[in-house]
Design brief:
The longest helix has 29 residues. The chain is mainly alpha-helical. Helix 4 runs antiparallel to helix 8 and helix 7 runs antiparallel to helix 8.
């Protein structure tokens, strides 16, 4: 009897603890202070039209990074089409495009991050967002201006860089949610 009661109490406390985390409000100033580019982060989070709690901010941030992934896929398609005469660049953009579109690549990572947030698996949010960061990095590394042998060098690192900044905001949010 006591066991049943105590597990009910424990279950209730866990429920309270997790719904407390989900509704938690942390100031955008405090969140953004922990990113590499606080002013970018503030601009993004302050443009969120939805709720101010961590889950709503996380959701908004995931939506933006998904939109940016779609833009980057469009960019990559045009880069693949334009780089036909440069086999090295062409191979790189093709590989990149595959990484972005794959269920195990960028779009898959974004989907996994989204599902983890929905199900309250905040550690999972962190894990999948970290994987996303790596996937994007694989694609833009060696593409920083001045270093790249590829044409159109400014746009791909720029788009990828934006995605990384946004992903780093998701990581900070996930830390507060998992705390
Ligand atoms: C990223 O997405 C946001 C919101 O849709 C948009 O304002 C911004 O221009 C996008 N940036 C890139 C590089 O795709």
């Amino acid at each position: 009897m006591f066991k049943v009661f105590s597990s009910l109490v424990l279950g209730f406390l866990l429920f309270v603890a997790s719904s407390h985390a989900a509704n938690k409000v942390v100031g955008v100033g405090e969140l953004c202070k922990q990113t590499k580019n606080p002013s970018f982060c503030l601009g993004l989070l302050n443009s969120n039209p939805g709720g101010k709690d961590l889950v709503s901010l996380g959701q908004y941030t995931i939506d933006v990074v998904r939109a940016n992934a779609t833009n980057t896929i469009t960019l990559l398609k045009s880069l693949v089409a334009k780089s036909g005469r440069d086999p090295k660049a062409n191979a790189h953009y093709k590989k990149c495009l595959e990484h972005f579109e794959s269920d195990e690549g960028v779009l898959g990572d974004i989907q996994d991050t989204q599902e983890a947030l929905k199900s309250g698996d905040y550690l999972g949010v962190n894990v999948h967002a970290s994987a996303l960061l790596d996937e994007v990095d694989d694609c833009i590394s060696g593409e920083s201006p001045g270093e790249s042998p590829f044409p159109d060098r400014s746009l791909l690192p720029k788009y990828g860089g934006v995605m990384q900044q946004i992903t780093s905001i998701i990581l900070v949010i996930s830390k507060y949610l998992a705390a």
